[in-house]
């Protein structure tokens, strides 16, 4: 047979139901249960076969099913309802954003991320970072925030995990058929397809731009698999987090430089740029290039663009941040460096901590330096990040390092089970759907014990069926016997306490901590009448051998005869499996090595569904746990060694299971309802849902980052960037003059004072060419913890006179804290356009 070509033959939608095409290509359907029901009811078997992908359902559905649906009054009633809701949502003008910030309704935020987890049918994500990015866009759509997303379209997605008969993870890749995903070629204002060019050391790489509609938000993703590219370049966007440093720097140039160029070609002019993690930090260099070509020098360009840039860091360990040596940076950026008019040293210093010229070029340092708004993703992670990156601001105490915290949340429309959402509708009121962050709604509700427990048990049964399907599929692939399949049908029970542990299998997450004392664990799991089951799932990066060994160990434990049915390992963790687990297990187990969990969001998803968290006090749980809404593992303290930390944590884990969790779960009334357990479920829903939803998170970002960034950026752009040009001149002059600043301080000669007692300070300041009004002389003081001031008191000293080139300042401090109290005196420059001390990097401390 000699085929000359192929063509996709699609069924023709009857006019009456032609709107299906529009909805299938907008991921709004992925958080609208009615819309999902609309597509699944066309052919339930096909819906499951194609991984809940309505685009592929419509492509493969035969004409008979189409005509049948178009003539079914009940189905048409649902169709009309869904179409009405969709158009009402898309056409809404009076959103929460426009109500709160009407003057910013046309000011666009560009949100860059290396991955977006929107739905399992579009596998361009690997884990929590991507799913957070997806939730970010969905919530921006719900709130009406004018946002566009920018990422990469990986045609092989993240890997498919299979666990072989010996328990080892095997990674394979399935090529995405772009015709069967909700992506379309992006068009410029003239209706032309958009392909951008990105320069590499010895060639130019082309990237096609695709559009993915996420409700009211547009996500643009770049794809290098185009005919203009050489074979090796076509694979640059093939896999997520694949390849060596040469591939990573090329991918990150395409994301950063190519992403900005794509938006320009599309006619999108953002006022705010948000980098979600450092992968996209090269966008700052492209923005600098644009400004330099527009007439600014590179220093002026930095002053002009930095106030409109936001950066979110997620990784609490140095090794997780990309950096490149000069042997890669110079060939990749020599041409751009020439355009910017920068020396090699000046250019490299953008990605290096101050006074470390031999350091590699760090994307995180670049992002921290060129963004005026930086944040970690939980309160504890903010503290960790300030410690991790304080060397970027060497003159500042750690507490003043300008990395704030905005704790991650999750999108309620995606992660609250439909059955649980219906329960909330009845007892909280439907207002919760648009205002899940309103704590007063949750405080006022009283979910009946019987209804909440029945809903949970229904979701647990769905989880069990999903887990069994996963195990059956694996057994079929391995060619296992019919008896093994019968065993699977008896696994898991709605009446057995079931814990879930599902996440990326990085070693710091300590997936095998639970198995430290096998005899004690067996007593917990196998206690007659009070048995416990634990379901594990998750992927290890293909290059992470220790993480894969954890998977192998759990597989081996699950095959131990005495533990079969009590330890279960499910392969190929994705968003579909995640939903079933966070909806249906009883307890969500999380035991990372504190403080390495930046936030963690899977537990937030579980909490909204009444699944109780049992976690180390790290990330979001360190602030969310109140003693009544779940359980804590271990202590909030530093440990002398990892072995000591592991021992303390596992002992706490076992004891809490034995003494609290298991007895409470099995304490039932005559109707089988564990009322104490259900009371804790209600506390979890009521206290955690409003605080850890992305509605609260996005409103925090908007209030604290997006709106201030927009307003500062606009102010600096006025009159052809006059303020930015002046600020660059001021900074250059100040950096020279600052070298002459010297302070001589007379400090209180006492060892003890009472709280509120005045402490007098006198300072003689030698300012060189600077005038007293150009500097601020202040006392910096506060209670010490581990040698660092934790809550500083700042008192500005007043100028009392000048003589012989020295200026005298005086003032007093009344300590408001008790304990070990530290104090110092410093000088900082003053400029009305710089609201934060960190933005100059210039601080002089009295010695």
Describe the structure.
The protein is built from 30 helices and 29 strands. Helix 21 (449-478) runs antiparallel to helix 22 (482-489), helix 21 (449-478) packs across helix 25 (575-584) and helix 25 (575-584) crosses helix 26 (602-608). The mean pLDDT is 95. It is globular and about 95 Å long. Among the domains are: 16-91, no CATH class; 448-692, Rossmann fold (3-Layer(aba) Sandwich); 741-845, Immunoglobulin-like, CATH 2.60.40. It has 847 residues and is α/β, with parallel strands linked by helices.
Which fold name corresponds to the CATH topology of one domain? Rossmann fold
What is the CATH architecture assignment of one domain?
3-Layer(aba) Sandwich
Beta content: 15-25%
Estimate the mean pLDDT confidence: 95
Q: Low-confidence stretches at least 5 residues in length (pLDDT < 50)?
A: none
| Terminal-residue CA separation | 87 Å
Largest sheet: 10 strands, mixed
Helix vs. strand class = alpha/beta
The backbone outline, from C-alpha atoms, is: globular
Fraction of helical residues: 40-55%
Summarize this structure as a short list of keywords or feature phrases.
single chain; 847 residues; alpha/beta; Rossmann fold; Immunoglobulin-like; ten-stranded mixed β-sheet; six-stranded parallel β-sheet; 30 helices; globular
């Amino acid at each position: 047979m000699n085929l000359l070509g192929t063509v996709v033959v699609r069924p023709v939608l009857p006019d009456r139901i032609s709107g299906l095409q529009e909805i299938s290509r907008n991921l709004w359907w992925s958080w609208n249960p009615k819309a999902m029901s609309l597509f699944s009811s066309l052919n339930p078997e096909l819906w499951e076969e194609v991984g809940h992908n309505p685009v592929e359902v419509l492509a493969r559905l035969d004409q008979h099913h189409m005509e049948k649906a178009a003539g079914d009054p009940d189905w048409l009633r649902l169709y009309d309802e869904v179409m009405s809701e969709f158009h009402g949502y898309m056409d809404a003008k009076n959103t929460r954003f426009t109500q709160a910030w009407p003057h910013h309704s046309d000011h666009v935020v560009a949100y860059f991320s290396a991955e977006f987890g929107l739905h399992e049918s579009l596998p361009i994500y690997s884990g929590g970072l991507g799913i957070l990015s997806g939730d970010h866009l969905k919530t921006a759509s719900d709130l009406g925030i004018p946002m566009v997303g920018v990422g990469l379209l990986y045609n092989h997605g993240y890997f498919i995990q299979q666990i072989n008969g010996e328990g080892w993870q095997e990674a394979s890749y399935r090529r995405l058929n772009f015709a069967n995903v909700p992506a379309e070629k992006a068009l410029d204002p003239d209706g032309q397809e958009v392909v951008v060019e990105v320069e590499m050391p010895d060639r130019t790489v082309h990237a096609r731009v695709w559009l993915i509609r996420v409700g009211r938000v547009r996500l643009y993703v770049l794809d290098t698999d185009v005919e203009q590219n050489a074979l090796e370049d076509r694979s640059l966007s093939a896999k997520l987090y694949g390849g060596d440093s040469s591939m990573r720097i090329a991918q990150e140039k395409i994301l950063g430089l190519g992403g900005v160029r794509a938006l320009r070609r599309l006619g999108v002019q953002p006022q705010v740029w948000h980098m979600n993690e450092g992968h996209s930090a090269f966008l700052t260099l492209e923005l600098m290039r644009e400004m330099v070509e527009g007439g600014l020098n590179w220093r002026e360009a930095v002053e002009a663009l930095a106030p409109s840039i936001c950066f979110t860091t997620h990784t609490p360990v140095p090794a997780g941040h990309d950096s490149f040596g000069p042997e890669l940076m110079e060939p990749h950026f020599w041409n751009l460096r020439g355009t910017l008019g920068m020396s090699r040293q000046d250019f490299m210093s953008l990605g290096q901590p101050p006074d470390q010229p031999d350091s590699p070029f760090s994307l995180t340092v670049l992002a921290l330096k060129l963004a005026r708004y930086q944040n970690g993703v939980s309160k504890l992670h903010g503290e960790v990040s300030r410690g991790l990156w304080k060397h970027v601001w060497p003159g500042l105490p750690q507490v003043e390092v300008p990395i704030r915290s905005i704790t991650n949340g999750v999108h309620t429309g995606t992660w609250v089970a439909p059955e649980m959402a219906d329960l909330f509708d009845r007892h909280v009121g439907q207002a919760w759907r648009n205002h899940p962050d309103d704590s007063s709604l949750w405080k006022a509700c009283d979910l009946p014990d019987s209804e909440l427990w029945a809903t949970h048990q229904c979701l647990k049964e769905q989880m069990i069926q999903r887990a069994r399907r996963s195990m059956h599929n694996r057994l079929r692939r391995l060619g296992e016997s019919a008896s093994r399949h019968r065993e699977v049908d008896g696994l898991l029970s709605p009446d057995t306490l079931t814990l879930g542990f599902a996440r990326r299998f990085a070693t710091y997450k300590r997936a095998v901590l639970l198995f430290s004392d096998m005899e004690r664990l067996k007593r917990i799991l196998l206690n007659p009448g009070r048995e416990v089951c634990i379901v594990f799932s998750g992927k290890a990066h293909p290059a992470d051998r220790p993480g894969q060994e954890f998977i192998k160990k759990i597989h081996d434990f699950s095959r131990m005869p005495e533990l079969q049915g009590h330890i279960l390992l499910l392969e190929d963790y994705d968003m579909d499996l995640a939903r079933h687990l966070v909806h249906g297990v009883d307890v969500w187990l999380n035991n990372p090595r504190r403080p390495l969990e930046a936030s963690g969001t899977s537990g937030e998803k579980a909490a909204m569904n009444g699944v109780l968290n049992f976690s180390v006090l790290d990330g979001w749980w360190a602030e969310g746990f109140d003693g009544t809404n779940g359980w804590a593992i271990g202590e909030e303290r530093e440990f002398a060694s990892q072995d000591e930390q592991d021992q303390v944590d596992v002992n706490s884990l076992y004891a809490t299971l034995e003494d609290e969790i298991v007895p409470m779960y099995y304490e039932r009334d005559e109707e089988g309802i564990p009322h104490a357990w259900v009371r804790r479920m209600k506390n979890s829903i009521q206290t955690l849902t409003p605080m850890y939803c992305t509605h609260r998170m996005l409103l925090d970002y908007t209030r604290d980052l997006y709106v201030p960034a927009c307003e500062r950026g606009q102010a600096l752009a006025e009159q052809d960037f006059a303020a930015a040009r002046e600020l660059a001149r001021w900074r250059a002059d100040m950096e020279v003059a600052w070298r002459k600043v010297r302070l001589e301080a007379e400090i209180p000669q006492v060892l003890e004072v009472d709280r509120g007692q005045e402490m007098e300070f006198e300072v003689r300041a030698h300012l060189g060419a600077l005038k007293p009004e150009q500097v601020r002389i202040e006392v910096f003081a506060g209670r010490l913890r581990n040698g660092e001031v934790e809550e500083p008191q700042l008192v500005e000293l007043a100028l009392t006179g000048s003589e012989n080139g020295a200026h005298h300042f005086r003032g007093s401090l009344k300590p408001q804290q008790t304990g070990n109290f530290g104090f110092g005196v410093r000088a900082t420059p003053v400029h009305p356009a710089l609201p934060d001390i960190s933005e100059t990097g210039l601080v002089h401390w009295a010695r």
